[in-house]
Amino acid sequence: MKAVEAYGLGELAAGDLSVFGRDPWWLVVVKAVFCFAFVMLTVLFSIVWERKVVAWMQLRIGPNRHGPWGMLQSLADGIKLMLKEDVIVKRADKAVYLLAPVVAAVPAFMAIAVIPFGPAGNEISIFGHRTTMQLTDLPIGVLYILATASVGIYGIVLAGWSSGSTYPLLGGLRSCAQMISYEIAMGVSFAAVFLYSGSMSTSAIVEAQHDRWYVLLLPVSFLVYIVAMVGETNRAPFDLPESEGDLVGGFNTEYSSIKFAMFMLAEYVNMVTVSAVAVTLFLGGWRAPYPVSAFWEGANHGWWPLLWFVIKLQLLLFFFIWLRGTLPRLRYDQFMKLGWKVLIPVSMVWLMLVASVRALRNENYDFQQIVLYVGGAVVAVLLLSFVADIFRKGERGQGDGEAAPEREFDPAGGGFPVPPLPGQTLPPVPRRRPRRDGSLIVSGGPDTVRDGKEG
Question: 165 and 88 in contact (C-beta within 8 Å)?
């Protein structure tokens, strides 16, 4: 492949997708193979890098036997998994059991099709044909990414259900609830980007960041997306669907050999995909960072944009590894509370503020007036919430003077053990004392020894 720098074409106008769809079929195949190879090589490197970085954080050596500096460790792991015995449990729904790993892995690769590796307006030459550094683009490219990411969850749910075992089923249900919770916050964080860029096309969103990256203009959306992407990929500290400590491996408990490897592959490919989306929407995509782009005119031409994209991508993958080596796993109630009570309300309020600012700017208000109006609205909301908290505390204080009647607690309500509801208390647990013959008796019962006498 030969790169040709094209400086005279200019940058792609927002929403102009006319440069796509003109490649011959063999060039489309070459670009598709490149995208697949790029993702696979990134995954192989990320597995080794994760083990190396976590070992460095824990003062260990890490893999150092397979290849130079242990760089072929992930390849050796893949070969080992393919050569292991392939077991299919007797009670499994065989067709769904075999289909689930494929459903989990294939959609993870599909999102990379609309990720731009370079500017669409500055084409490169491959075997004499001018083409863009992007497989294709769509007017609703970001929605296409969300759709493909949503399909992958079916693989995990079907894997948990088809195994015919309790623990995989619990892991699959956890994953389903987790994806629903965090995809809402992720979608709302994307909406702020759509408002500023005026497009859902990935190439147009990158072109709209030529002056300033959206991580600076939309910091709250970026932070919400960062948290949501960790939850979306089932990575620590949000790896509740697997949760090895209490689910014995989660949804993939009954899988082995190449099918288990496909689930692990899907997890790492999803890491690459969500990191690529973060780079595209918030970190300027293929654009060179400020000091480089300011002093070097050719930084965003030719094959150089691919280098900047890869560097940003690897920094986000390092962030995934850093979280895994730093934070403990959350409880499931904490995890769901973070998604429904923190991320979604914050992203909704932030979207309203962003929409208000855009509306005011469209009406030709200057920046000081926008800050005044938006700041006044935020102060008013905070003041109202403060007053509401005062009244709520006053009502709570009045209610504390009256003893709330305790309701009778049935520990086996409905035929299953249940925790106490608000206002109910657990009955005291009887203490047990050993008999003289070694058996246990309930303290306070008719056989209790009191004052040296048997009562």
Answer: no
User: Which of 113, 87, 90, 152 minimizes the C-alpha distance to 34?
Assistant: 113
Q: With H, G, I as helix, E, B as strand and everything else as coil, classify residue 257.
A: helix
Residue 8's pLDDT is 36
Q: Please name the residue that has the structure tokens 């790993």.
A: 101
How far is it, in rounded angstroms, from Cα 110 to Cα 112? Answer: 6
**Residues 195, 169: contact at Cβ < 8 Å?**
no
162 within 8 A of 97, measured Cβ to Cβ: yes
Q: With contact defined as beta carbons under 8 Å apart, do 355 and 195 qualify?
A: yes
Measured CA to CA, the distance from residue 106 to residue 165 in angstroms comes to 25
Share of the chain above pLDDT 90, in %: 22
pTM of the model: 0.78
Asked if 251 contacts 159 with a C-beta cutoff of 8 angstroms, the reply is yes
Measuring CA to CA, which residue among 121, 155, 156 is closest to residue 137?
121
pLDDT for position 352: 86
Angle between helix 94-110 and 25-57 (nearest 10): 100
Instruction: Give the pLDDT band (50/70/90) at residue 5.
Output: very low
